[in-house]
Amino acid sequence: METKQFKAESKKLLEMMINSIYTHKEIFLRELISNASDAIDKLYFKSLTDDSVGISKDEFEIFLNIDKENRTITIRDNGIGMTKDELENNLGTIAKSGSLDFKDNNDLKEDVDIIGQFGVGFYSAFMVAKLVTVRSKAYGCDTAYEWKSEGVDGYTIEECEKSAAGTEIVLSVKDNTEEENYDEYLEEYRLKSIIKKYSDYIRFPIRMDVEHERKKEGAKEDDADAYEKYIERETLNSMIPIWKKNKSELKDEDYNSFYKEKFFDYTDPLAHIHVKTEGTATYDALLYIPAKAPYDYYTREYEKGLQLYANGVLIMDKCADLLPDYFSFVKGLVDSEDLSLNISREMLQHDRQLKIIAKSIEKQIKNDLTKMLKNEREKYEEFYKAFGLQIKFGIQASYGMNKDALKDLVMFYSSNEEKLVTLEEYVSRMREDQKFIYYATGESIERIRSLPQTEMVKDKGYEILYLTENIDEFAVKMLMNYNDKQFKSVSSGDLDIDTPEEKEEIKTKSEENKQMFEFMKEALDGKVKEVRLSQRLKTHPFCLTSDGELSLEMEKVLNAMPSENKVKAEKVLEINPDHQIFTKLQSLFADDKDMLKKYTQLMYSQSLLIEGMSVENPVEFSNLICDLMV
Ligand code: ADP
């Protein structure tokens, strides 16, 4: 018989399984039972709309058998089964492996991460079995097939005998090694406890024939054959899904382990939300906020969504309509009686009930996050570290449509507090005479801290929010204000921090030096909109700011995007009237205009560098400095 080869990636995964040093090998059973349950789900689902299936709900089962003599474990289901092609495609290639980032160093330690993180499905059988035999008959087909593999060398498929539709998987358990005891998987009590631990909520009975002993009727205690063995078929799982249980019955641990199994995370979630509602929408939901952003979270590959159950039956694995984009990090499931089982995906999108549920869930999530922010600040900050970016994207997206829902969840670093603060906190601390919520932008907190533009604002005692992410200023612009307090960049036009006397003084000085500034503007040849005196500088000689809607930071961010349309902020070169440089400029304007021109160009380039922007012509810039040096 022909031996077929596994696809390259599957082979790699298999190799990893076979040589695994993963300590929780027991999960193979969870994976196989979960596949069996999915297969039964499919046939059950069919039976609801198709009378010809001819199986009633209570006939479905997953059956386990241990054969100690032959060292095999059998897992049998009467689900939908697989055709020959399906056996080949489903078991010969592993879809998931595409997302596994294999490195080529054969580092076995790595498998722990991968197995823990993804749950590797069917192939996990090879962690405990040296030979895996799958016999399957697809529902509606007459022929059954047997798929067999001892691992990386490939697999065979041939016809076999099997009466009922469904799948039977026989694991020939590995021999014990010095490090590993495989015999334990041939013990009833061991399998029972694995099932309790991982598969208790599986909706179909997992059954096993268990041997018991009892005293024969009328026998005396000391009779040699007083006891007899008998077999009883036991159901090993409670079949109650965790979300149907009472909250009082459940511990954090139960919620967390369910999360990790179901959503393939290896860290506990930050929080869970267990909702049971009746009323306009009747549903149970179990929602989780992960502790870390999944590796692909901020990419296009990430798919948001909640599992959707109609009265306990899984009808969709990732129902995107249940979550707004800005809460796309939430994992979990919703189970509702209000949904019809045979609703199609297209219909679901327009389902009124689903919309009501989605709205209600959104509210729940927001409430819980707000509560966390109030009562568990540290936890919230952890959340914000992972998903704050998403919240800010949410404010900015759809022309700010959702900004009101999100504005109280956002936080920025505060110059005064030296930690993340909410807008509410900022505004509550504002001074009586303070009109604006001040913010400064830059690559990092350290960098913003040393920005010339922040000097005077800080010196006068105003709190400044430090915006370090690309999205931040866009989000702030979208918010426009918070509690009627407008946001104001420390680099923008009028900061309104001067006393009337200071204002008057600047005005007079500006008037006096008008011609010099005009000259300097000319010297920069259209690069700036204006050269003027600054109100925001204390010790620094000059800085670059912008007038108008587009800030320097926004120019930087937008121009870094792959687009042909480059933007330009209306730049302003501001000079500190109290700095020696200013006196120097004045004397040059009187005596040496050529030199003033060079100085101006130099100052402009320097101020670009301070902003973290690049000088337009580095060679010219360098030559200019050399000129002045010699
Ligand atoms: P996953 O279950 O995550 O898709 P697996 O490697 O566990 O990945 O299984 C691959 C596929 O093989 C499944 O998606 C399913 O189509 C099929 N399969 C596995 N076990 C069974 C089974 N007992 N009955 C029917 N189909 C199965």
What report would you give on this structure?
The protein is of the alpha+beta class and 630 residues long. It contains 20 helices and 22 strands. A hairpin with a 5-residue loop joins β9 (271-277) and β10 (283-289). The chain is elongated, with a radius of gyration of 34 Å. Residues 95-99 and 101-105 have low confidence and may be disordered. The structure holds adenosine-5'-diphosphate (ADP). Residues 31, 35-36, 39, 77, 79-82, 90, 94, 121-122, 167 line the site of adenosine-5'-diphosphate.
Offer a concise description of the structure.
With 630 residues, this protein is of the alpha+beta class. Helix content is 36%, strand content 21%. It has 20 helices and 22 strands.
